[in-house]
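Inputs:
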Amino acid sequence: MSLHFLGNSVTLENVFIASSGTVCGPLEYLGPLGSCFDKSIQDYHYGEKSFEKAERKMLRDALDICLKRERLKYHDVDLYLGSDLLNQITSVNYLAREIMKPFIGVYGACSGFALSLALGSLLVEAGFVDRVMTMVSSHNASAERQYRYPVEYGVQKKATTTFTATGAVATLLTSQKQLVKVEAITLGRVIDYGQTDANDMGRAMAPAAFDTLMNHFQDLKRSFHDYDLVVTGDLSMYGHQILKEMLQRQKIDVVRYNDCGCMLYDLSHQPVFQGGSGCACSALVTMGSLYPQLKDKKLKRILVVSTGALLSPMMSAQKESIPCIAHAISLEAVE
Amino acid sequence: MSLHFLGNSVTLENVFIASSGTVCGPLEYLGPLGSCFDKSIQDYHYGEKSFEKAERKMLRDALDICLKRERLKYHDVDLYLGSDLLNQITSVNYLAREIMKPFIGVYGACSGFALSLALGSLLVEAGFVDRVMTMVSSHNASAERQYRYPVEYGVQKKATTTFTATGAVATLLTSQKQLVKVEAITLGRVIDYGQTDANDMGRAMAPAAFDTLMNHFQDLKRSFHDYDLVVTGDLSMYGHQILKEMLQRQKIDVVRYNDCGCMLYDLSHQPVFQGGSGCACSALVTMGSLYPQLKDKKLKRILVVSTGALLSPMMSAQKESIPCIAHAISLEAVE
């Protein structure tokens, strides 16, 4: 079997998910998937003096839960990969001080979940390492003041706004056979359709998700019919609809497709505007809800396309449009 | 031959450097290595409306020079990896819009050069891709306002300050035999000795460089004597001296050691305080000056230990100390 990429994609044989840890915030707990998560916090400060420190504490919890399940300690993992939304990937970098193992920080905005899983999977598949821990987090209040305005300003939100999910997820990859494998990945390209509004991320990211999906299907000669479920990361209601239309215009039969930003919350009752976004959005839905269904064989194969808007607030202030990216991972129940 | 990591390190057999492109700023051009670089800019704005846009333009130039040397186009490269200092890795993300190939953004602060080369090398060694382009940049004025104060404030500098190098470097890795190979890498761990002063980076980063060097030597059973030259990224005068003392206290024989931050400038005459820092610092010295010497067999084997201070300005404002990391790559002239 060749390890070489086909276009932007590669199929994998020896990468499995050994364990996960999921921690969510108050609104995520009250959403339809609330009971799926290992732990929830009821207060955005989580006993810490700042939102950033609260986010890091959630991430530490997720990591500890993930390791405890497998009775492992920090030093039993060969390599740590992490991503979050803060300048400059703050939560994972500062948490990594406690870990004392090789660490790689990646940045893909809200696509960080699939990006870190994809990269970790490549390193396990190649045989460089046996165990890789991937970690992602986002926190509504820390992200709001990073990208938009401090929540205390009480700025009125636009109808197109998405709501950054509060949560942290750790996922342990291993070369040892487990119930679920990472079966294929597709790396994304940076796509920019000229959207400049930081309050309409779904619309900005839909073309990147479209590009990655089309590449995935073309590279591996697949379609929606090869999956029990295809989810995008956090396009939410507007973006999700746009992606569907883009695909249908290409005569793609869109079946069993949903968006994590629409699945994480009850959009008709919860105050999350168009739905969820943030690194934690696709990570919570995938590892909290879909991964257990793969373990139980209720799902056979799923495709997770995490989307990320790579904007820098500095460049938005300089009137630049928003670069976006999407990375895809295919997860499969092992026979 | 096993691909597996030995501790934090791995030796590689099939990764070569095919080409490079180096662009420097005005002070780097006037420094002792000025004639080594492919191109220099004489004005920090480089015809653009902002420092950030100028940095991106330099990066595009470096990429174009690197590709042109090999008569390649953007689409001939399988994968792009990039890193810079800006929130949120701005220069590479925004440039990647023009590239339309799979892209991975990594963040390691000033260690971004070695981190992206290390990661790219792993993916080439494994056979996933044949050609990987790594790109890093930093710009004195864009970094100053990102991490400290806008240059226009004219803040008085502390004696311990380093000077962010202005430059951009593209390095093309390939699986095809060339004159110089990436022979080994050591991934860093996040180390924090409790330093809180964002104007004394050398002191903060020295322990991370020490950790990576010690791991490298222990993992691969090597010493300074196995290299014609060992360079750290950007510890500059203070940090460079601290590292030397830390090593000597462990009875390590420190020979043929220098720091890129001290090599890039004439420290007795140029206004760069303790010396250079920034992603571009170790990248310019390595690819501008050392890589040609490896090609000409004037150097046989060198170790580059790029250091990075992973501070977030937000966390510094919250009185947190500075997490640091160092990644090492060993480059060797091919027989």
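Chain A touches chain B through 60 residues (CB under 8 Å). Flag for discussion at group meeting.
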